[in-house]
Amino acid sequence: MYTAQTILKELLDISPFPGWKIEKLHDCVNEKISRLEFDLLFPYGAESLVTAHQAFLKNLLLENIKQMPIELGVTGKIRWIVQQHFQNILKYSEAERAIPQVIHHPSIALKTPDYIAELTDIIWRTAGDHSIDMNYYTKRISLGVIYLATLSYWHQSHASIEEIMNFFDHRLEDLKKLTSIGKKYTFSPDNLLKNIRLLKAHFWDR
C-alpha cells in the first residue's frame, strides 16, 4: 500500500527531477500506482505535491533534531538546525529548485507562509524559546525573513552548504546588531534629541 510520503520519496529520488507537473510525475511511477490512486493521494495536484514535499522536509528535520548536541547555546542550536535543514534541501535540490515554477499558484503561495511559520517555530522551540508575548512573533518573523533571504540566495546560486551558512551567519549578525541598536532607542518626545544623537553616532560618525 503506497502512501503520499512513500510515492513522494520515490519521486524526489528521480534525477533529473521532472518538475511539479502532476502528469509528468505520475508518468514516473505509473507502473506502481494508477492515475486514479495518484490523484487520490495528491488531490490538488501541484499544491498537494509541494505541501507533501514541505512536510517531508519538516519530518526529516525533526529526526535530525534528535541528534542535536545538547551543549549548544541558543544561537548555536538555531544555526545547527538551520544547517541540517539546508543539508536536507541540498539532498533534493532539483525538486526544491523547481518550486518557483509553481509558486505562482495562489494555493501554494498562500500555504508557504504557514510552512515557514511552522519551521521557525520548530527552530525557536528547540532552541529553548517558550515566549508567549510579542517576542514570540518578532523572533519567528525575524528568523523567517533571514531564512527566506538565505533560501533566495541559494536559489540564485550553486552555493555549497558552507557558503549557505556563511550567508546565514551574516544575516543573523545583522539582525543582532539591529536588535541591539533598537534597544538603545526609546522614541518619545522627551528623549528625541538623545535618540537623534545616537542614530547619528551609529550611522554617520563611525
Which short descriptors sum up this protein?
mainly alpha; elongated
Oligomer: single chain
How many strand units? 0
Low-confidence stretches: none
Overall 3D geometry? elongated
Sheet of most strands: none
Nearest-integer average pLDDT: 87
Give the total of domains: 1
- Give the helix/strand class: mainly alpha
Helix % is: over 70%
| Series of H and E elements | HHHHHHHHHH
Span between termini: 65 Å
Radius of gyration: 21 Å
Strand fraction: under 5%
Count up the helices: 10
What does this structure look like?
This protein has 206 residues and is mainly alpha-helical. It has one domain. Helix content is 71%, strand content 0%. The chain has 10 helices and no strands. It is elongated and about 55 Å long. The mean pLDDT is 87.
Tell me the layout of helices and strands:
Layout: H1 4-12, H2 22-28, H3 35-41, H4 46-65, H5 74-91, H6 93-97, H7 106-127, H8 134-155, H9 161-184, H10 192-203
Helix pairs in contact: 1-4, 4-5, 4-7, 5-7, 5-9, 7-8, 8-9
